[in-house]
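FYI - complex with 3,4-dihydroxyphenylalanine, inputs then prediction.
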Amino acid sequence: MKDKIKIYLSEVESFTTDTIDQLEAFRIKFLSKKGLIPALFADFKNVAPVDRKELGQHINTLKQAVQQKIVSIKESIDQKTVSTNSSIDLTLPGESEIGTRHPLSIVRNEIIDIFSRIGFSVSEGPEIEDDFHNFTALNFVENHPARDMQDTFFIETDPDILLRTHTSSVQVRIMENTQPPIRTISPGRVFRNEAISARAHCIFHQVEGLYIDTDVSFADLKHTLFYFAKELFGEKTKTRFRPSYFPFTEPSAEMDISCNICGGKGCNICKYTGWVEILGCGMVDPNVLENCNIDSEKYTGYAFGMGIERITMLKYQINDLRLYFENDIRFLRQFESTN
Ligand code: DAH
């Protein structure tokens, strides 16, 4: 009997197959009711008591070997079935969808492009600012009501630190560090404590423009912005300047363009006036130049600032600011661009 078990064991150890049918035949041969192992247990009754312990162990070892063999062969057959029957073809190239730029990025890039063509560089400043760069240097005197024009997010523990309310703060940083001629635009994110609605958001984007040199005049400002409006909104675009007030420019103005939706005839976007406002501008106040260590006797300059959201709304006829921030793929897919 001992020899028989030995022969079976070596048969079990060398057994191999890759079909379920052969594995099943193997199982039946050894483990079924009429199989070899139950037969061994049946013969066991005739074994002399002294040999029983040893032989019992041998039969159990054989039984375990058969069971383990079945489990391990089954596992390897299952794995092969998954990899050959699976619909996943790992050799195929990845499926990719080409992304599109966000409309605000498209318009920002276009604005940068237009000003780059006439010699403006691009500069940036910090979003977390101090009072000096956001207000004081820009001629907002302490307690001046103009500070209320912009609902500022202050850092609670330090009222000197705030989230910049406009990119005009970058003007100050540039003038502090550079002597004229300066000709630069500064795109960036700004923050105001506003309730979110279709027309207002607490985070939005601006582009600031600054030109400082000897003999810069209001005519230079008008000409530059006229060129800009035509480049961005089309050759037929008309512009007009209205007097306005900003603490950091004197004189100050706001620029309107002829409504590009109705062509100036009047619609609900231009509130039936035929004109839409797109930016604020003016000649840099001499106080601001002096605050930034630039000689106001020698140099003059102009500045302008525009909101990218507003310009994008006009360009693409978007009627709700919140769409920019929701990342709805159906909205974003409409803006295909190469720049
Ligand atoms: N900083 C102004 C604002 O956020 C926009 C602005 C107006 C910027 C006139 C300028 C300017 O540089 O000259 O409303």
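The first strand starts at residue 121 and ends at 122. The two ends are 85 Å apart (CA to CA).
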